[in-house]
Every structure is written in C-alpha cells, then in structure tokens.
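Morning!

This is the sequence you dropped in the shared folder:
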Amino acid sequence: MQKQKIIALVGMPGSGKSTCVDHLVASGLPKVYFGGVVVDEAVRRFGVANEKTERQVREEFRANEGMGAIAKHIIPKIDDLLKEHDTVIADGLYGWTEYKVLREQYGDNITVIAICAPRKDRHSRLAKRPIRPLTAEEAISRDYAEIENSEKGGPIAFADYTIVNDGTPDQMLAKLDAIFATLG
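The structure's back. Tokens below.
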C-alpha cells in the first residue's frame, strides 16, 4: 500500500496557488479548499462572498474556535478523500496554527509547498482575475490581514518546498512538476 500524502499549498493572494492546484487536479488528484469553508459561510450569512465578508468570517472562525479553526473544518474532508485516494491536495493553507494542526493530524504525510511571487505581480493578477477581483486597496488590505491576523508567514517560511513564481505560468508549473517527481 502506498503511503498517503497530503500536499498543502500556501501563498499570498495572487501568488499562483490556484494555477498550481488546477494543474494538479487536472492530473487526477482530488483537492480540498481551505477558502471554501470561509466562502461558503460568507455566502450563507451575508448572501455574498467578497474581501470584506470573507475576512469577517475568517476572523470570527478564529476568534470563536482558535487559530486552527479552518484546518479543523478541513480535516474531515481530507479524511473522506483519503478513503479513496493516496494523495490529496490541500488548497490554500492559511496560517501557522493551521499548519501545526495538520502536522499533528498527519505527521510526515503532509508536505507543504509555498508559492511566492513579487507583490506587484500578485496585485496585478488579483485585479485581473475573473472571480472575486480585488482593487489595489483591497489587495493591500488582504495582504495585511493575512500576515497580521492569519499567521500566513509561518507556513510559507516553514514550507518543505518553495516555488518562486516570477516567470510564466508554464515555468511555475514545470517547477511544481519537478517537486512532484521527487515525492514519489
């Protein structure tokens, strides 16, 4: 039996995580989406998911359930997928406490890949994305919130692998494929 793996992708908004996740899903790997927990709750409560409602939900989850709240909500989804798959992609790990919750749950079966990109490139991508585009002010506000309120820097700094996305999407995906080739 092959060892089960959870591959968690982390990065600031606009870094290229979604492109990487889409590439992995297209290769047949299932995913769970950390942000989906927040988006679903924002839509349920406010009728819309946007930068403001998502931030409110994200911060309330953490205030009420601790900084590892989103990871705790994701674990049952990961476990369900692991019943049928050897590898699961965890899209959008948020913070350090969530990293520790996942590490405690899955031990060495979790690998973290940080996707990093220059801020100006990230903000340009966020402004142009078709779903939930962000203005320059919203992008800066989101960056601050993710660093100050979500502990985002910890899992980026502690990642097992780092991809610097400062070229084309194909160059980034080639780096991702090279990492996957070493994971067996």
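Headline: The beta strands are 5-10, 31-33, 87-91, 110-116, 161-164.

More detail when I'm at my desk.
O.
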